[in-house]
Amino acid sequence: MVASTSEQLTALANTTVVVHPLVLLSVTDHHARSVSCTSSKRVVGVLLGQDNGKTVNVANSFAIPFEEDEKDSKTWFLDHNYIEGMYDMFRKVNARERMIGWYHTGPKLRASDQEINDLFKRFIAKPVMVIIDVRPDTVGIPTDAYYAVEEIKDDGTETRKTFLHVPSAIEAEEAEEIGVEHLLRDIKDSTTTTLATRVSEQLASLQGLQSRLRDIHTYLLDVANGKLPVNHQIIYHLQDALNLLPDLSDATLTQSFTSSTNDELLVVYLSSLLRAVIALHALVDNKATIGRTELEDSVDDKEKRKVDNSNSKESSS
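Now predict its structure.
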């Protein structure tokens, strides 16, 4: 591996890995078929797509045979002959989709990832590794993308192999959006109301935020205890994020937040009140309609009886 300069690291850090829903569904199906629910094993596969420089488009994937010793992470088996055969067949179907990297279901980095990544360099010079978290309780974006690099130390010591985290996103084309909507329509519980759905979505967002804050807290503790080296770029990002937080000790700002919240709650209260009045009006109107219908039916029955009686008298006479 060629040692990466600061310019190369900056260029890689600005690369965005776009994962399509088809890949997420394929990986989830691969994991469900290969691993039991109680096992902590991971599955490995190949990613196909296009590398456009600043954007890596992951459009397809296929699973590969992979075995790993749970006690010794350095003992693993991966069938590279299977990779060559499957890639040749995929290339005949769609020549635009090139091999761009590999995935595994982690959910975190493991000690053998560097060795597996070196094996994939037989097929591609700069493979991207995407960790796809298939756990059902996961909140937030389930993908983490990495590039293998060699860090050059400022003090001139030996370079160190590591993984550089790059941004990832979930995007879909129009055909994929239609398929995802149909899947969500089958999965979505039709008995839940819109309000319950919104509350559950906000709860999932808060759980995702809590998970990220927990990761930041763990990282800062490890840095403070000397378990991890200080990464100034991460510290700068955290400082920028914290500087964006409002100063709640300011009385004027607190009063502004309170006024804005009260205005929003007033709108919610008026909307609820209006909805209740409309519901009561509909109930009263429905009852009145039913009463008029019953009255008309009774009148019709009386007239029908009178006609029947008159007819019977005429026939008897």
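The CA atoms of residues 152 and 159 lie 5 Å apart.
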